[in-house]
Amino acid sequence: MGGNPQNSSELPTFILTGLPGLETSQDWMFLLLGTLYMVSIVGNALILFIIKEEQSLHQPMYYFLSLLSVNDLGVSFSTLPTVLATFCFHFREISFDSCMAQMFFIHLFSFMESGILLVMSFDRYVAICKPLRYATVLTDGRIVRMGLSAFIRSFCLVFPLPFLLKRLPFCKANVLSHAYCLHPDLIRLPCGDITINNSFGLFIVISTFGLDSALILLSYALILRSVLTIASLEGRLKTLNTCVSHMCAVLIFYVPMVGVSMAARYGRHAPPHVHTLLSLLYLFVPPMLNPVIYSIKTKEIRRRLCRMLAGTKF
Asked: What is its subcellular localisation (predicted)?
């Protein structure tokens, strides 16, 4: 599949990869991924429905949870078409424009999730450290502005990526490492100078994941300092318990992401399917586990869900 560099009128076609070396197991892999998709889509849709219907949940913390659920649905639907085509129908080709569109939406929702987790940590900081000002600080208008800010930041940072890739000549075997299009995977393929792409990609990571994770850590340091001023152990545990769901959401988002980054940098000699499995964890685990965690840890959501299941006739 090598050859001369392609000009802008001859945009390349990319080849998606399922699990290198495990082609005979890909039907079973589709069953697993299909289950994960179903749990993610149904779980996040239920969270949105319950928050909409339950008046007691019409408060800032659950508005941010709604944003997280919408974003997780976006992540799932961004990867679903090519994962379904690759693992179920063994259709591996994807056009340049389709690949750029998928890459745009995957990274848009990934960066948005980081921003949403940051504003959720701000919500927990205000609720614990400034409880008397909670209602005046987190007004409906301010919540909308915070959500829009997370979207606008992500959109502005991701928007240039397809154009920066389109200007480059492609003359290598255009085989991707995953069943979907990711920017770090795509910038390995061009023959031209990718310095700008690498620099801009690093800038995006630092200004989103790096900045957001640092601010989340700062907010929890302030929360912990405030919690330690509470006299009783029971009071401290009760206060910290309100943060457990968010802390779990942060961990299941950032830990797989760090694992993917470490594997890409230090695991060059690992089998190819290891990198693919790590990337699947990064994109599949947070959308699947977030609704499960919040359903278990949030009493109002759990109670409404139990009522819905009790009222279902089988």
From this structure: Cell membrane; Membrane
Residues 6+ apart with CB under 8 A from 223: 124, 125, 128, 129, 243
CA-based nearest residue to 60, from 129, 114, 117, 134 = 134
Which string of b and e fits 10-42 if b means at least 16 CB within 10 Å? eebebebbbbeeeeeebeebbeebeebbebbbe
Write the CB contacts of 106 (distance below 8 Å, at least 6 apart in sequence).
75, 78, 79, 180, 181, 182, 283
The 10s digit of each residue's pLDDT in 185-202 is 888 888 888 889 888 988
pLDDT, one tens digit per residue, over 89-132 is 778 889 999 999 999 999 999 999 999 999 999 999 999 999 99
Angle in degrees, CA 183, 246, 255, rounded to 5: 40
